[in-house]
Automatic annotation (TrEMBL):
This is ITA11 protein. Residues 9-190 form the VWFA domain. Keywords: Cell adhesion, Glycoprotein, Integrin, Membrane, Receptor, Transmembrane. It is found in: Membrane. Residues 204-223 are annotated as: Disordered. Signal peptide: none annotated. InterPro entries: ECM_Assembly_Org (IPR050525), Integrin_alpha_N (IPR028994), VWF_A (IPR002035), vWFA_dom_sf (IPR036465). The keyword Glycoprotein applies. GO terms for cellular component: membrane. It comes from the Eukaryota. Belongs to the integrin alpha chain family. Its main location: membrane. GO terms for biological process: cell adhesion; integrin-mediated signaling pathway.
Length: 323
């Protein structure tokens, strides 16, 4: 809409050592997270490496140019095995080689590391993470931890190691799941945090006149007098709407939303504009509808009229009753 900041190179670093079981759950996680990315020329590129004792490229950043093709490739990745978990080697391989194979100048670098055990080359981690920091690689780390009973694993040391791998702060970049099957539970949260990273990049590069903020997702309704668009990431993810007409763009003033979306709730990320529609009232007037599914964690729908002076008249607001 105004130059979305989905310009990212993402390398997924998969632990494929013998202790990972069942592999199909890792594969499902990989496919589900890939489906969340805007993959395409000028947008997100994804590469995958798998490690155990050795590290291999499963596919490079520029091998596939669509979600469909990347998902098809990911569905054929088989577990390579290995008696050792050389996580430091896997991360260094991703940093020094995988980002170079098809990596783009100016693209945000993101690494997602998934492992279920303490590494066998942990003394190397400090240097590896230091080099990743120098290369501005944002690292998300996923620990698959069942407590380590009977496996000779020190759960606390393992979790501390994975937190060390993750970028700071840990609450944004570190995930802990109880087993491979639970990986599916973090797909939405991980995708959301990566997209919020896009939003932060956008704030540095977009001019204030371009809605002032980052609109990474749009939806539309097509009434007869123009096209209504939702800009979910605008205004710190509170969201916004705008209308494209034959005579130009109508971007409502921020003040038009404040009655229903107060400033003090700005951290809640309402996602206004996630869905938009329109209808004709009994007075034969065009009424627009926009959903904000995350408003106050229960959601809100507003019905409104839009005016050429950039003001909105909100006729009704419907609040959700549960998460």
């Amino acid at each position: 809409l105004t130059g979305c900041q989905t310009y990212m190179d993402i390398i997924i670093v998969l632990d494929g050592s013998n202790s990972i079981y069942p592999w199909v759950e890792v594969q499902h996680f990989l496919i589900n997270i890939l489906k969340k990315f805007y993959i395409g020329p000028g947008q997100i590129q994804v590469g995958v490496v798998q490690y155990g004792e050795d590290v291999v490229h499963e596919f490079h950043l520029n091998d596939y140019r669509s979600v469909k093709d990347v998902v098809a490739a990911a569905s054929h990745i088989e577990q390579r095995g290995g008696t050792e978990t050389r996580t430091a080697y896997g991360i260094e391989f991703a940093r020094s080689e995988a980002f170079q194979k098809g990596g783009r100048k100016g693209a945000k670098r993101v690494m997602i590391v998934i492992t279920d055990g303490e590494s066998h080359d942990s003394p190397d981690l400090e240097k590896v993470i230091e080099d990743s920091e120098k290369d501005n690689v944002t690292r998300y780390a996923v620990a698959v931890s069942d407590g380590g009973e009977g496996e000779g694993i020190n759960p606390e040391a393992f979790l501390n190691e994975i937190k060390f791998i993750a970028s700071d702060p840990d609450d944004k970049h570190f995930f802990n799941v109880t087993d491979e099957a639970a990986l599916k539970d973090i797909v939405d949260a991980l995708g959301e945090r990566i997209f919020s990273l896009e939003g932060e990049e956008g704030k540095k590069t977009l001019k204030p006149s371009n809605l002032g903020k980052e609109p990474p997702q749009t939806t539309s309704a097509a009434p007869q007098d123009g096209i209504l668009l939702g800009a979910v990431g605008a205004y710190d993810w509170n969201g916004a709407v705008l209308k494209e007409t034959s005579s130009g763009k109508v971007i409502p003033l921020r003040e038009s939303y404040l009655q229903e979306f107060p400033e003090e709730l700005k951290n809640h990320g309402a996602y206004l504009g996630y869905t938009v529609s329109s209808l004709i009232s009994t007075k034969h007037e065009r009424i627009y509808v926009a959903g904000a599914p995350r408003f106050n964690h229960t959601g809100k729908v507003i019905l409104f009229s839009m005016h050429s002076n950039r003001n909105l008249t909100i006729h009704q607001a419907l609040k959700g009753e549960q998460v």
